[in-house]
Write a structure and sequence with these properties.
Blueprint (H helix, E strand, L loop, with lengths): L1 H38 L1 E5 L14 E5 L1 H4 L9 E5 L28 H10 L5 E8 L4 E5 L2 E4 L2 E2 L20 E3 L4 E5 L9 H4 L2 E2 L3 E10 L5 E2 L2
């Protein structure tokens, strides 16, 4: 009887040890997945038509987080995702046009769990996806249905034929892009809420750069 009891105890210890090892492996895997998602790469899905025809609704993409991790300024033409401003339609009455930067949700009063959900899991945050048009220090003008950078018309081969760029009654159609911000627009200009309406995007609000489309499979490849 004693031998059987000892064997049962050993078996229980082995089972508990096995369960503990599995729990440790799962926890490590979750932590690694979150680190990769936050600092390196993460998948996302296109939910709007503002980047048509370059990107279409329900396409799956891979975002690079490297630029955010190392605080690198994106280049003109890059497609980025960023935290959606809290005010998407600004007026002259509530805007200092000498500092045309978008306004974002104040998260200083969030709890640690709320911030974790917002910044890491991103379950409570809305994001926009647009193309970088203007860089820090550049004079961006929208006139005659076109975009001008420092007085020169911007060539935009990615737009559909016949698409014009209107200011959409926004107040940010003739600005100098502040330092550490970018001016971004959707490729589907007439169906895009973008920097024309809410101002420039600070570098620390940029979440990632679109690198790869992996769904649908027949359109698998790099995005530009």
């Amino acid at each position: 009887m004693q031998m059987e009891e000892k064997k049962i105890q050993i078996d229980r210890k082995q089972i508990l040890k096995e369960i503990f090892n599995w729990i440790v492996c799962i926890v490590i895997a979750i932590i690694l997945a979150l680190l990769i998602k936050y600092f390196l790469l993460t998948p996302t899905i296109v939910k709007q038509s503002s980047m048509f025809p370059t990107l279409k609704e329900n396409q799956r993409l891979i975002l690079s987080r490297v630029g955010r991790t190392f605080k690198q300024m994106p280049e003109r033409g890059d497609i980025i995702t960023f935290e959606a401003p809290s005010e998407t339609h600004r007026t002259e009455a509530d805007t200092d046009l000498s500092n045309p930067v978008a306004i974002f949700t104040d998260t200083s009063n969030m709890s640690i769990i709320e911030k974790f959900n917002y910044y890491v899991l991103e379950t409570t945050k809305t994001s926009f996806i647009k193309r970088v048009i203007g860089l820090p220090g550049e004079h961006v003008q929208i006139k005659e249905g076109k975009v001008f950078i420092n007085g020169e018309e911007l060539q935009e081969d990615y737009l559909q034929p016949g698409i014009v760029t209107d200011d959409l009654e926004g107040i940010f159609s003739d600005i100098v892009v502040p330092q550490d911000t970018v001016f971004a627009l959707g490729d589907n200009r007439n169906a895009s809420i973008d920097c024309r309406s809410f101002g420039c995007i600070p570098l620390d609000k940029i979440e990632g750069e679109v690198k790869l489309r992996f769904w649908p499979l027949n359109q698998f490849g790099f995005v530009d």
